[in-house]
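User: Predict the structure for this protein chain, please.
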Amino acid sequence: MNQTNNSNSLHAEIAAPNALQRFRESHFWHSFKRDKVASISFTIFIIMAILSFAAPLIAPFDPYDQMQIDIMDSELPPIWEEESDERFMLGTDAQGRDLLSTILYGTRISLTIGICAVLLQAFLGIIVGLSAGYFGGKIDSFLMRLADVQLSFSTLMVAIIVLAVFQAAFGTELYQQLALFMLIMVIGIAEWPQYARTIRASVLAERKKEYVDAARVIGFRSPRIMFKHILPNTLSPILVISTVQIANAIISEAALSFLGLGMPVSQPSLGSLISSGFEYIFSGSWWITVIPGIVLIVLVLVVNLLGDWMRDVLNPKLYKG
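Assistant: Here is the predicted structure, written as structure tokens:
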């Protein structure tokens, strides 16, 4: 009898596909393999992310180390231009820093701000959206009016006011030390209504379904129903919004850095690199601004293309693949 049971359980384990097999057989993976734009975009994004986060290991120089920077090497052109230096493949900036190394470190900062800001947006938006959609009534009205007020102000306007006031109140030196944290907080808090409104719409449709009524009858409390039963069924729009919002957060950070309210020159992001080199673009040192600008455009483009593909795939009404 025991041998029979063991044999049956063994056959069941062999027959049951694991998570990887289910993923490889899913519509999501099938459509990803067929869509060349999505595959290429994802590959480029992964390469850029790996190179940027591995910058301390692969960058030729450390742009944060003053001992490796020589002002006499400033504004050297890329190696395909005359008067270049073979040590600096993409040339140097106005401070004499290797542009390739600075771009790798700057991309890491831009991605960190984008990803962390989106995580904060999602955290706030999910809590607000779930609460508004599940409880309804006055709670829903209050939270949605709060979201409407937030949406009436653009992200850049809120960020400019908050960051400028912070610099005026606490000084530029303290701001430069907290710039990364401040940018994540400001961009994250300014964009949470995008998640809240989308999650609320999904929750309004889900809360009327039988599995929610069954969970209430069993005696589950509201937080458990909201986070363990309803939330998993609203993940599709969350993934789509998150992909697009990463690109938006990176653009917002770049715009703020260009206005002088982003990362300091000592810890440059892609936006601050573009800003610091803009005044030299007409003097002949075009590479200081143009090359980081191209990297920023490619990064935002591939993230947006991935977001568009995910929106089409996760919405059966739009997908035609």
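The chain has a mean pLDDT of 80.
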